Amino acid sequence: MASRTGIVKWFNAEKGYGFISCDEGDDVFAHHSQIKENGPEKDLHEGESVTFDIQDGEKGPMATNIQKL
Asked: Which InterPro entries would you find in this protein's record (predicted)?
């Protein structure tokens, strides 16, 4: 599956999830366990650019392999 790019729409670090606005127009669920970041800061910030893959989750599309640009 090809990586996609998008912008973090919002992310709640306390709850560990948020949404990414995909460049193709859809919003995709993002969970902190899918952020590929070294170190303790596995969070995202509103407006941050990311690349990610998409897979079908229990409640719809979910971002996987999230990497900050």
From this structure: Cold_shock_CspA, Cold_shock_domain, CSD, CSD_CS, CSP_DNA-bd, NA-bd_OB-fold
pTM for the predicted model, two decimal places: 0.88
Q: Residue 66: in which H helix or E strand, if any?
A: strand 60-68
pLDDT at residue 24 in the model? 85
Owning domain of residue 25: 4-68
Q: Which two tokens stand for residue 37?
A: 């970041």
Distance CA 19, CA 44 (A): 10
CA distance 26 to 16: 20
Q: How many domains does the chain have?
A: 1
- pLDDT, averaged per 10 consecutive residues of the chain (69 residues), comes to 89 95 92 86 91 92 95
